[in-house]
Amino acid sequence: MTQDSAQPDDHDEDQPGAERPWLSDEERAALRKPLPERAVVTSLAFTGLVAAFMMTLVTPLVPSLPTILGVHASDSMWVVTATLLSAAVATPIAGRLGDLYGKRRMVLVLLGIMMAGSVLAAFSSTIVPLIVARALQGMAMGVIPLGISILRDVLHAKRLGPAVALVSATLGIGGAVGLPISAVISQYLDWHVLFWVAGALGLIGFVLVARFVPVSTLRSEGGFDWIGAIGLAAGLVPILLAVSKGNEWGWTSVGTLSCLIGGVVVLLLWGWFEVRSASPLVDLRIAARRTVLFTNLASITVGFAFFGSTVVLPGILEAPVGTGVGLGQNMLIASLCLMPSGLIMWAMSPVAARLTAAKGARLSLLIGIAIIAVGYAIAIGLMTEVWHTVLTATAVGFGVGFAYAAMPTLIMGAVPPSETAASNGLNSVMRTLGSTIASAVIGAILASQVVTDGTVTTPSADAFRLSFAICAAAAVVGLVCTILLPRHLAKDTRSSLHEG
Length: 500
Prior knowledge:
The chain is mostly helical.
């Protein structure tokens, strides 16, 4: 749908499908003005960068958090876990609310919540308020799928592909580019400055969206499924909690098994309820379509592989040289070595968009995941020099850039416009699930195979190689899922986006 087709007609409010009375006269007037497409894309891409930055904001602080907060190391990790859980739960809920009540409105709400969390964190000095603040910040992840959905609503089809590719890639770009910034602030300034910077970035994003992004006119019928939202949260949280804490609690412990089994049971009951709901939070019939299903499964593997590089590569770079494994670099240098990953995602997003427009999103996803697999396969034998890690990060970033550009296009080509935000939100949750699984699996591997140099203990070379091999294997599984996508998508995806 283009902006012209989205504009209201003052004389057809009573007709079926006509403009609803939720638009004020001022909003109607604004919709008649020419759409500043470049400003819209820039605003939504910036909010995506800010949201991704939120996820890696405290990464450089993790080793120091127990001392800073005066708590045990296991307790301090809740500062990271809370962000992950809130992002996974809030993203599909925000997507559905956006479909119902306006995507732009929900972007502004999420940015406002993120700013509130940033201010709370900036004034925090103990763990409980900081955990609450990080949970509020994590909700900002919902702006990325919402932004992609807004682009589908307002941009011409010819300009949609590059814009979607760019906004989708911000998930990786923001983290890779934001890490060095976080490292510098953490190393040379008070750690509270991190959150003041985050709040300022959120405010800039809020102003940009309010100024340049048009009000949403394409909305779904029905009401919000509160029972479905509560059920989804009740099912996702214990599963993600068990996966992220399994190494610490023990995979056969009562707590871990209770969370896993309980979460699965709740999700099964939730699914049974959703397929019978007149206005479901997530339309599982659409989610079960072959294209959507296998795209989401491939998203899990891409999320796994991408997160693997952010865990393994810094470990190699920062481990002491005396262990015979590490490269002895500091936190800032390690962050800079990962930066090319984000930059290549940004550079490749228009290339991926052109390939998708010419040959279809299925081929783009195949190429992206194949590059990830090859990058990790090469990394198994190249991990003894700093440039080896830069090469691996760049290869992974190249592949992830193609994959992230293709996945929302595949989703949008298979779902009706009124379900775009909710479906993209579910796809984002799949990426998060992949990252969570990677954190648990790779964390267990790195903790189980170690070498010691004096008082310093680090993962062994075999542990790093095995981690690379598992990431490569995850990418191969993603390749299989992509191959199972219908071949006619090469044509249908493009045509459906033009029609939308």
